[in-house]
From TrEMBL:
Species, as recorded: Pseudooceanicola spongiae
Statement: the UniProt record of this protein carries the keyword Kinase: yes
Record lineage: Bacteria, Pseudomonadati, Pseudomonadota, Alphaproteobacteria, Rhodobacterales
Record-given protein name: ATPase
Keyword NADP: no
Primary location group: membrane
């Protein structure tokens, strides 16, 4: 088993599929290599299967096209031999399943007749005797050495298809999960099913006869395959989804049923009790294993999900075959359908497997497993078409390969895409509706209501049986306990959640659900982040307007209040209105040249000081001629306006002085007065000083306040653009 672990899943899958298709090709080749008369035969009385009642010739074609139909086919004899070498035909010769013949003597008689008929057909020309409307008609017919492919009946292809399904699906599971014993038991059951179906396809659809050797081989192969299917399925349900037995107990089924298999292989009699009794016993044991799994997993929704689809499909498939074929023969009643058609029941097992993997991740598989099947099918289709075009139509290799690629590209790939969409189809809410729900959650301010809406949203998406808080911190959504739960990290202030048992407990969470949840959680996280950023931006804008109105509007209104001149008062009020419009409508206004900005500030502050009788001086040194950014210009205005406002309102100072200097790409500014000071340690700063401190810190500068009996000094050191050091400077006189 370990050798498979290091093989690519595609390699393992193609190897098992190649073996299955190669075996099917050999069966087809053997079926068409038998002599062919061109007869379509039926029993006169379907309930009299083991008698010599006349056979109905319902149609004739090919070598026997001259025979009238419908008619009764009475006998067959070699054309060149004595008349008594012929054989009278009866319904016994059309028995589909030799091991259903109840008596040993009758079975030997049947095999002897089949051997004689097969020898006649291979011996050359034969004489067929038919009865049509009371008249006897003898017709010489030469059998064709090979049976045409088109003459093989539909039931033959049904059995071939069922035989392919077993190992192909089993190989698929093993290629993906080579370390799981349950996968290997499923493959073993598939191989047994293929043996039974392939063997039955050959002898149950024979035209008239098959040699004793071939009948003996394939009848025993059919019985052995059926028992091998039982071994695989019984042991599968002994360990999956819950392990019921351990160790040597798993050998009990192979030993018991294996004994019957060995007996069949080495030549045990082919009576029905040698095959049908162990088959019936195996099916009863299989039902018992499923029932035990159902009881032991009553509190495990994931195991119940497996049994809901996979277990019930096995009951329907294997149980349907036993009920329609095995039990009637054991009861002495003729089955209502042929064994070939009854093999269709086994397809239910693989339909259940496919649905189980798609919905419940059986064998821990998910959607990606189907992609492997599609790729493998594409490779086989390409190789098969190429071989058919070369061998059947005799096309050149290059032309055949090109045509095969065209068929795969233009026919198979679109079909594969449509199948993928259909397999992955879910009843998803339109994206615009999902986005509207996410937006509503993100815009909800109340945390309790926001969490309630989030829980309702996930309930609507996946219908989990339970939504609880996740016990651990999460970075991203993840599946828990093989899909029993889906953990979702909380975005923003929302809590981490755990969703248990999707669709009301009817299925597990799949990788598709995980991908879907990741996308939704990502959108929700971005929406919450954008909403938080929006709220933060609104709060910041409100704070900016408040600071600007306090720092700019306040000092100008104060200047207007203290101005005795009407013209100057009007000018200050008009300037205040202009500044107010600027603050509201143009928050990110452009900066200004530093020299011009300082000149404007000097004029404004000087006017305010002189209006209340404060002697004011302005000193500058080494001022670079540079353009300040808007934020830096706002800081400079706020510093001098807030300082002037405090001098006018609180200091009662006779003198004030502003100093501005530049060194090492930093602007040093200060505003001092000789008025009444205050205790910096105990004073509570107002909004203006707090705003100013924040503005300067945001620009990377430092701010300091010193105050005492001799007055107060506000000072700041602001970084300026590095290019300022290389620009020419200008000096401004005091």
């Amino acid at each position: 088993m370990d050798a498979f672990v290091f093989r690519s899943p595609v390699v393992v899958l193609l190897a098992t599929w190649f073996a299955a298709f190669a075996a099917a090709a050999l069966v087809i080749l053997l079926a068409i290599s038998q002599p062919w008369l061109g007869l379509t035969l039926e029993r006169t009385n379907p309930s009299a299967a083991h008698t010599l009642d006349p056979i109905v010739l319902s149609a004739s074609t090919g070598p026997s096209a001259a025979l009238p139909a419908p008619a009764h086919l009475l006998s067959i004899a070699p054309a060149s031999g004595p008349q008594d070498a012929g054989l009278r035909l009866g319904t016994l010769d059309l028995v589909e399943e030799p091991d259903y013949i109840p008596e040993a003597g009758m079975l030997r008689h049947f095999l002897d007749r089949q051997q004689m008929l097969a020898a006649m057909l291979r011996g050359g020309e034969v004489v067929l005797e038919v009865e049509k409307d009371g008249a006897l008609i003898r017709q010489r017919v030469t059998p064709v050495p090979a049976r045409p492919l088109r003459d093989l009946p539909a039931v033959f292809w049904i059995q071939i298809f069922v035989g392919l399904a077993g190992p192909c699906l089993g190989g698929w599971i093993v290629s993906l999960k080579p370390r799981q014993p349950s996968a290997w038991y499923f493959l073993l059951a598939g191989i047994g099913l293929a043996m039974a179906a392939y063997a039955a396809a050959i002898y149950s659809t024979r035209e008239l006869a098959l040699s004793r050797t071939l009948l003996n081989i394939f009848t025993r192969m059919n019985g052995a395959g059926t028992l091998l299917f039982g071994v695989g399925m019984i042991n599968l349900f002994l360990i999956y989804p819950k392990r019921l037995v351990h160790g040597w107990a798993l050998l009990l089924t192979p030993v018991l049923l294996g004994g019957w298999i060995v007996a069949l292989v080495i030549g045990a009699p082919l009576q029905s009790y040698n095959i049908q009794i162990p088959v019936a016993a195996a099916m009863l044991a299989l039902l018992g294993g499923i029932a035990a799994q159902y009881l032991i997993s009553r509190n495990d929704p994931s195991a119940r999900a497996v049994l809901t689809w996979f277990g019930l499909s096995v009951i329907l498939g294997a149980g349907g075959f036993v009920a329609t074929i095995v039990l009637p023969f054991l009861s002495g009643v003729e089955p209502g359908i042929s064994q070939g058609h009854a093999f269709i029941f086994f397809l239910a097992i693989y339909v259940g497997l496919g649905l189980g993997i798609a919905r419940y991740r059986l064998f821990d598989l998910s959607d990606w497993a189907f992609q492997l099947v599609f790729y493998g099918a594409g490779v086989l289709l390409l190789l098969g078409l190429d071989a058919a075009l070369v061998l059947v139509l005799s096309l050149q290799k290059d032309a055949a390969l090109g045509l095969s690629l065209a068929v795969v590209g233009f026919a198979y790939l679109p079909l594969r895409h449509a199948l993928q969409i259909r397999l992955r189809k879910t009843d998803e809410t339109p994206f615009d509706q999902v986005f509207a729900q996410i937006t509503e959650i993100a815009l909800t301010h109340d945390p309790v209501e926001q969490e309630r809406q989030l829980r309702a949203f996930w309930q609507d998406r996946f219908e989990p049986l339970q939504i609880t808080l996740s016990p651990k911190g999460l970075a991203a959504p993840q599946l828990v306990d093989r899909g029993e739960a889906l953990d979702l990290p909380g975005a923003g202030c929302l809590p981490d959640l755990r969703l248990r048992w999707a669709a009301g407990g009817r299925r597990l969470f799949s990788s598709r659900d995980l991908h879907h949840a990741r996308g939704i959680n990502d959108i929700l996280g971005r929406s919450l982040a954008q909403h938080i950023a929006y709220e933060s931006a609104v709060a910041e804008e409100r704070s900016r307007i408040n600071r600007d109105m306090h720092d700019n509007i306040g000092v100008q209104l104060l200047g207007a209040l203290h101005s005795a001149e009407v013209d100057r008062k009007d000018m200050l009020i008009r300037q205040t209105l202009l500044d107010l419009r600027e603050i509201i409508s143009n928050p990110s206004s452009i900066g200004a040249p530093l020299p011009r900005l300082l000149a404007d500030l000097r004029g404004q502050i000087s006017e305010h000081m002189e209006a209340v009788g404060v002697s004011f001086s302005w000193q500058t040194e080494a001022i670079p001629n540079i353009e300040l950014a808007a934020a830096e210009a706002h800081v400079l205005r706020a510093f001098f306006r807030e300082g002037a406002n405090n001098i006018l309102r609180h200091a009662h100072a006779p003198h004030a002085i502003a100093r501005i200097s530049f060194d090492h790409a930093h602007l040093n500014i200060s505003l001092s007065d000789d008025g009444a000071g205050f205790d910096v340690a105990t004073a509570v700063p107002g909004n203006g000083i707090a705003n100013l401190t924040d503005r300067i810190a945001a620009c990377g500068g430092t701010f300091d306040i010193r105050s005492g009996a001799q007055g107060t000094t506000l000072s700041a050191r602001l970084p300026l653009p590095a290019a300022a050091a290389d620009r020419p400077v200008r000096r401004m006189s005091a």
